[in-house]
Amino acid sequence: MDIFLQQLINGLVLGSVYALVALGYTMVYGILELINFAHGEITMMGAMVALAVIGALALAAPGLPGVLVLGAGLVVAIPVCMALGLLIERVAYRPLRHAPRLAPLITAIGVSIILQNIAMLIWGKQYIPFPDVLPQGRHEVLGAAITDVQIAILLLTMSIMLMLILVVQKTRLGRAMRATAQSRQVASLMGVDVNRVIASTFVIGSALAAVAGVMVSAYYGLAHYYMGFLLGLKAFSAAVLGGIGNLGGAMLGGLLLGLIESFGAGYIGDLTGGFLGSHYQDVFAFFVLIAVLVFRPSGLLGARVVERA
Amino acid sequence: MSAPKVGNLLSSKLDAELTPLLTVSAVSKAFGGLQALSDISLQVHAGEIFGLIGPNGAGKTTLFNALTGLYSIDRGEIRLNDARLDGRPPHQVLQAGLARTFQNIRLFAEMTALENVLVGRHARTTSGVVGAVLRLPGTRREEADSHERAHALLRRVGIAQHADRLAKNLPYGDQRRLEIARALATEPSLLALDEPAAGMNKVERAALRELLLQLQADGLTLLLIEHDVKLVMGLCTRLAVLDYGVKIAEGTPDVVSRDPKVIAAYLGDEAI
Amino acid sequence: MSSVLSLNKTQPHWLVFGLLALGLALLPFLVDAGLGRSWVRLLDLALLYVMLALGLNIVVGYAGLLDLGYVAFYALGAYVYAWLASPHFGLHLPFWAILPLGAGLAGLFGVLLGTPTLRLRGDYLAIVTLGFGEIVRIFMNNLNTPVNLTNGPQGINLIDPVRLGGVSLSQPHTLFGFTFSGVHLTYYLFLLLTLAVIFISMRLENSRIGRAWVAIREDEIAAAATGINTRNLKLLAFAMGATFGGLAGGLFASFQGFISPESFNLMESIMILCMIVLGGMGHIPGVIFGALLLTLLPEALRYTGDWQRNLFGQIYVDPADLRMLLFGLALVAVMLYRPAGLIPSARRRQEFADAKG
């Protein structure tokens, strides 16, 4: 099997999921300059809710085609996550918009802990296997394997990102979002309902997170109440890597991080003469992140801000 | 461009005392394709109030940032007395004796007025961690001296009553004064003020004018960016006019205000 | 708490001082009698967190550098202690020698890790420091091969307890007819060091150095233009914070007798940050209070089992599962009602008063 091509495929799939989650971070950051620490947990919630629905459906109607069951899971998980995002913004962030800068970061951490523990109380501490509804197809491409799930993830993320770009570039809401990101004050003077724009940003980001959550659990075949933490961390890193606040940056950062991890895991042993094993793949990702930021302090696509004096 | 015959236009008494304090020689700076400063040369003499004027975007603040080490320059040389300033970080520029204020007021918002001025003493004091933790005699002396000077400076700019208020809570005009006090605490030989009168009312402007003249009388040299033409004309001994990053005129207010290039570029019909 | 508060502002009356000292001296016995031995242990741990929080407070609270990898220095201090005083390498150096060594090494690492981050601002700095913290933890987890440095996820065991002048803090000692147990003696040692850290923090806060840090936090450009060497002062802040972290790490290793990478994960860094922000960032009494509260609160929330039984006659939810949920709720609630922290500094109070008036 061709290792290079295989790692490329794996990296792209993983990276597109990171990118989807990273978009949520970067949109909120672009508008509020807030690290929505709970975003990873929303992803986890999306996975858990979808899994619960899928599991129930698979039990109740075993004959249903897998795609339909999966779709039902998504159809429930997306609005649940949207509502969750809306609620969190309203309760934990909006009251603190003029508070000291770190206060909303702490409420974000608090919300994150709350969501984790609610999930744990509902679904327990054990890993939850993904029900057996997914298509099992595998295809050989030039000596590497790609599964149906991987193809579906790639296609779905591509189309979602395209849609998001269209929304942001072409619609009234998108224009209002960009205006708000430039300056909240000016936007509100121009008649933009800033509160609505911010709420919409959370809702859209949460919807993306729900889809990403389902994808990630489908990809790895399981879900866990703690899965949002590391996923969120990596996605946020991806957003920063690309230049936080920049949609294209989040996509690029996500894909890059996925590729780095995948190639890192595949080649790190060879590169270091066996000194470092594949369990160092996270180190690899963080090293690249640090190196990029040290040389490009605003990320890859971030605006190079000349500090105004 | 060759400098106008400045000496002839000033009184002969001043003529004898001309010693260059700040020398800017052929300084250029570009941002991407935009030439923000082209070949700027000027000299500020010890004891004078030198005005820097020009329309918005002429490069005045860019020149200030270049002088004070916030921007690196592409070409040219900046000297204060005999010390090269270009290529040095801001804190070394300040150490050499060039202090500044900012157009958009940059105080330490969450510190009191007194603390803001005390920070100004940083460059002229030396106590470190050990001195601070053990309160060594030297540190105690230094702190007492810094506090005394800081209070004196607050009195001098007329905001002694606000010593313990947070900088961000001071009225606008007093914030500008506080910024001047903070700069003065660094014991500069040249003080660069970026639009010190911006946003001030008539009374405050008059008080500022008094203060600046007093500082000059005390031997401080001032470099001033200002939009208020009346203030500039009445206050400055000499002026340089920038337009699109180029120095188009230099001389006494009288001469400059009659220069056709200046009138065309900047003063237009509003001043004369 | 109010007496600690007044320490900062007015010269305390000697009587207040004496009462405070007496209270602190008797505290472990009162706690022991009232709540049990395990709470005295917890008290020791709380003191460790006070040191950690005050260390991070220098970096985040004063200099305004959002550091999410602080726990790396805590880990470093702990591992240095474990290497030099455990059967792992067969070394058993004395406590008084290792502790400063670990703290100093951590300080040095603070400068080393701080240097590449000097150009970064705000959240970019946060993510890079977080990366450093994770890298350190992953290395600790994996450096059992090819040379067994850290013993991997199993951690290092049988670390020597503190031994000072023939007195081991793992055994009870009798003095003046009183019997002091190990955790009591540990309390006094930790208290002494905590007081030292508080003292140093207080002195630094009101000094040329402390003012320079706050100036950098408020406006880095203006600070540089006012003559502050921002690079050196940021590194100094990293170094001071890391030193306190390393100190706490060494104490933690000797106190627990066992360390593993799990004790030094990202959540630990986040918790320490929460202590600072929750208590009142940049304000020493607030930071102390935040550290005590967040160490003791999760333990206190274990009692929710009893509350449930009293209220409903049976336990519906395992208190161990419930306590982190309540903890998260508490974090959110406190921030919503006290955005500047529970005990904000006088200037923060002034700010809010001015905003209202």
Short summary of the structure?
In chain A, 72% of the residues lie in helices and 4% in strands. By secondary structure, chain A is mainly alpha-helical.
Q: How would you describe this structure to a colleague?
A:
The complex is a heterotrimer of chains A (309), B (272) and C (357). Chain A is mainly alpha-helical. Chain A contains 11 helices and 4 strands; from the N terminus they run ααααβββααααβααα. Chain B has 272 residues and is of the alpha/beta class. Chain B has a domain at 6-97 and 188-267: P-loop containing nucleotide triphosphate hydrolases (Rossmann fold, 3-Layer(aba) Sandwich), CATH 3.40.50. Chain B is 40% helix and 23% strand. A 6-stranded mixed sheet of chain B has the order 6-7-8-3-9-10, with helices on both faces. In chain B, strand 1 (20-31) and strand 2 (34-45) form a beta hairpin. Chain B is globular. Chain C has one domain: ABC transporter involved in vitamin B12 uptake, BtuC (Orthogonal Bundle), CATH 1.10.3470. Residues 1-9 of chain C have low confidence and may be disordered. Chain C is globular, with a radius of gyration of 21 Å. In chain C, a hairpin with a 2-residue loop joins strand 3 (163-164) and strand 4 (167-168). Chain C has helices at residues 2-9, 14-35, 37-62, 71-84, 95-114, 122-142, 182-205, 208-218, 220-225, 230-256, 266-279, 284-300, 304-312, 319-337, 346-356; strands at residues 85-86, 91-92, 163-164, 167-168, 173-175, 178-180. By secondary structure, chain C is mainly alpha-helical. The two termini of chain C are 28 Å apart. Chains in contact: A-B, A-C, B-C. Chains A and B meet through loops of A and helix 3 of B.
Q: Major sheet of chain B, described briefly?
A: 6 strands, mixed
Count of helix runs of chain B = 12
Amino-to-carboxy terminus distance of chain A: 57 Å
- Helix coverage percent of chain A: over 70%
Number of strands of chain A: 4
Q: List the chains of the largest interface with their residue counts.
A: A-C, 49 and 48 residues
Gap between N and C termini of chain B: 25 Å
Principal-axis shape of chain A equals globular
Main structural class of chain A: mainly alpha
Mean pLDDT rating of chain A: 87
